[in-house]
Amino acid sequence: MYNFSAIINYIEYLRHKCGLFVSIHPIFEKGYTVVNEKLRIFNFHENRYCAFIKHNPKANKHCIQCQTKVAKQCEIGTFNGVCFAGVKERVYPITNETEVVGFISVSGYKTVNADSYLKRISHIYGFDYTDLKKKYEFLNPTFPEPDLLDTLLLPLCQMLELAYLKSDILLQDESLIDKVIQFVKQNYHEHITSEDICKRFFCSRSFMSTQFNKATAKSIREYINELRIADAKRLLKESSLSVTEIAFLIGFDSSNYFSEIFKKQVGISPLKYRKASRN
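Request: output the structure for the sequence above.
Response:
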């Protein structure tokens, strides 16, 4: 098995020492489940504006759909772009020598003509324009020199390419529940339900519930919440995002419900956990 510690440590270095909002976006349809599982904790933009946008289910869905277009554009190489919400980013393709299997985004920067983006998405998705503009101010106004970003990010591209090559394990023979578990691990931060999963895998809720419980000793909802709380603990320790922003970012519709689940699993509230982890 490939050792992912160097990759994870380097991403953490880029995020916390270099101040870069680095996120990893695999193309899940390509397979490589082991690699994608290791990298799932980096599969979102860790800034307040994007967290605010993603708490809107329709905007979040559109963001995910846009990633397919970004991956397609990666076939021509590294590029600078602006997302539908007006965030500037530099995008690096991840390949396995023969095809693009994902991309790295360095995001979190303001763009010119930002008001046109803000007015459009406030109209389409029902955001309050004043609130949206306030959140936009959390973005960095200065975009780094591309040469500097390339110096820092190209080594990560090479490490990820090697990881995909070394972990050449497209799991073609995995069982139904293995596939369900993998799907949940890849999508738990989205608004997925047991009904969604049953429809996707063409089986009844009773069958899915029984088989999933046999494999994990948990219900699907319990399993999803455990994954979400694990991410929440990391974000509470390492980021300055509010409890509400973290709740929406990891897939909860309500910050109160998130706090309830967090306390049930961890024993203390999210705010107390953050305070204790930083003492």
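The beta strands are 21-26, 79-82, 88-95, 100-109.
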